[in-house]
Write a structure and sequence with these properties.
142 residues, alpha+beta
């Protein structure tokens, strides 16, 4: 998306906020200055174009506490600006996040059912919390 799109969206949000605070419909003149930063990398599925989709197939919810299903998937990281640090933030679009065992995990459309993410490298399992910046990731994320 272009810089002008983000600038327009920022202006819309700011105008909505001002209207809510003032509770008025009057025209308000404002000046906005912002610095738009390009992301450090592009993260997609392994084909380099499509979003990442992970299919868990059919899951028996009665057995989740006994043997939770694990699903490995690969990501394709490209167009990196190597002057920036690589970090990942999982930002849910639809169902948000939920707390489980003291961690923020990805909520699903099923009440009380979530998906946790981990970076697993050489027998080291590092949790990835939803909504929190995670750095120092390995190449394989599960």
């Amino acid at each position: 998306m272009s810089f002008h799109f983000y600038k327009y969206k920022l202006l819309q949000i700011l105008m909505f906020w001002i209207a809510c605070v003032l509770n008025t419909n009057a025209d308000v003149l404002i000046n906005i200055s912002a610095t738009m930063l390009a992301p450090a990398c592009s993260i997609t599925s392994t084909d380099g174009y499509d979003p990442i989709e992970v299919n868990f197939d059919i899951v028996n919810v009665e057995k989740l506490n006994i043997s939770p299903p694990r699903k490995s998937f690969s990501i394709f990281i490209s167009e990196c600006d190597l002057t920036k640090s690589l970090a990942i933030v999982i930002s849910p679009k639809a169902n948000g996040s939920m707390m489980a065992k003291g961690r923020n995990i990805l909520a699903t459309s099923v009440e009380g059912l979530g998906i946790s993410f981990s970076d697993i490298t050489m027998d080291k399992d590092t949790s990835i919390d939803v909504g929190k910046k995670t750095t120092n990731l390995s190449r394989d994320i599960k």
